[in-house]
Specification:
By secondary structure, this protein is of the alpha+beta class. It is built from 16 helices and eleven strands. Helix 4 (118-130) packs parallel to helix 9. The longest helix has 20 residues, at 136-155.
């Protein structure tokens, strides 16, 4: 009887999510190639204006890394009609907030305003695109900002460089081998002309998607978009390189970090592009292994055997390839090899035995909840619409992505663990305190 009630509750929850999460939108193209997506939600007087550019760290010259992230900062410097240093003042004085972020695949800018300031948000983003001022003063200022960010978030952050090291181990040809923040030496040696060329190449309307979500009148919004964005000239078509990696060659390397006292061990695997179903399956694999205190690795290594202070596993799916990491910090005298043995045992269990029906249903409920939360605000909806269009070529994924997770079976989870979590196609990183380095 309990099983029937549990199944009924899960079914009812599924139906609620489908109804609550249906996101309506309209999309079209301007003549200059800019894609536009509109989502109307008049339940609150708030609007998000956002622009996502299809440029990230992977689009950089290997000798000039860090440019995409640098531009995340640089394009707040000012425009022909927004004085230097005034961008944030304009936003906050009009009751708004704004931010930007960069990955290896895209750069995203957005403002959230009271809906009566929609036109202001559109004008500011059109200014960023049409009239940016890229001069030596702005470049020099932002070089200092990025240098300080790298010192705080990477160089002086405990365990702050593991992604940098693992990227070089997993990728030999693809630009994913360097991190988004890139090289400070490359930024320091770059000329003003280098930055201007990067802007002219990638910050063009035909390499961007504009999303307006929230309390809008669609007809009026279209008129504003036509006024501010339609006159912007189309840029040259962008030619992107493609990179095909050879299978991962197993290797074990050591990195010494002066900012830590406790070592860590990382197991890393190369995985498929985020558009492939297996990328979604690997999300579930990582949840089974280390998401929360009921996960397998936490219960085994932290709770029961007390061999680890912390465990983690996560799937980092991206546009071209993904990476899958499993790791732990040892407790006491437990060795890194002990942790590898324990983690491999759990991987083998996933590869040889189906997870239980109860664990499978818990997993489905967890991803239902995540789906609801990701689109619980117009800010989140704007982000999802832009990302789904640009990186997945499927804007309606905002409504259908949960169906992909629902379609994943226990057999799929087992098969993905077998296919991707191979000992002979992984790299191992020993991440050690610098004090352990032989002198």
């Amino acid at each position: 009887m309990k099983k029937k009630m549990y199944a009924l509750a899960a079914f009812m929850l599924s139906g609620v999510v489908l109804t609550a999460q249906e996101v309506s939108f309209e999309e079209y193209d301007l003549d200059n190639g800019m894609h536009v997506i509109l989502h109307q939600d008049n339940s609150a007087p708030v609007v998000t204006t956002s622009v996502m550019y299809h440029v990230g760290a992977k689009d950089e010259d290997p000798s000039k890394t860090g440019f995409a992230h640098f531009f995340e900062h640089l394009l707040f410097e000012g425009t022909e009609n927004i004085e230097r240093g005034e961008w944030f003042k304009i936003v906050t004085s009009n009751g708004g907030k704004n931010n930007a972020n960069t990955t290896q695949d895209r750069t995203y800018y957005y403002e959230v305003f009271p809906s009566n300031n929609l036109e202001l948000g559109l004008w500011m983003e059109s200014e960023r695109l049409l009239h940016p001022i890229i001069n030596q003063i702005g470049v020099d200022t932002q070089k200092e900002v990025v240098q300080e960010e790298k010192r705080l978030r990477v160089d002086n952050q405990p365990y702050g460089r593991f992604q940098e090291v693992i990227g070089k181990m997993l990728f030999k040809k693809h630009p994913y081998r360097w991190t988004t923040i890139g090289s400070l030496d490359h930024l320091a040696s770059a000329t003003l002309e280098d930055f201007q060329k990067f802007s002219d190449t990638y910050y063009v309307p035909n390499n961007a998607v504009l999303v307006v979500a929230g309390d809008i009148d669609v007809a009026e919004t279209k008129k504003m978009i036509d006024t501010y964005f339609a006159p912007i000239p189309r840029g040259k078509d962008i030619v992107r390189n493609t990179f095909k990696e050879d299978p991962v060659v197993p290797v074990r390397e050591t990195f010494y970090d002066p900012n830590i006292q406790i070592p860590a061990i990382f197991l890393a695997y190369r995985t498929p592009a985020q558009t492939e179903k297996d990328a979604y399956v690997l999300d579930m694999v990582s949840s089974v292994l280390s998401d929360g205190k009921s996960s397998r690795l936490y219960k085994k290594l932290v709770d029961t055997k007390k061999k680890a202070l912390q465990v983690f596993a996560f799937s980092g799916a991206q546009e071209d390839y993904g990476s899958y990491l499993i790791g732990a910090l040892p407790l006491g005298d437990n060795s890194l090899d002990d942790l590898i043995t324990e983690m491999d045992e759990e991987i083998v269990k996933l590869q040889t035995t189906l997870i239980s029906e109860r664990d499978y249903q818990k997993l489905q409920n967890k991803f239902e909840n995540r789906f609801v939360n990701s689109n619980s605000s117009v800010e989140g909806i704007a982000n999802s619409l832009a990302r789904n269009y640009m990186l997945y070529d499927d804007t309606n994924l905002i409504n259908t992505e949960i169906d992909i997770y629902r379609s994943i079976t226990r057999e799929d989870i087992k098969a993905a663990a077998i296919k991707y979590l191979k000992e002979n196609e992984r790299v191992i990183l020993e991440y050690l305190p610098e004090s352990q380095k032989e002198k």
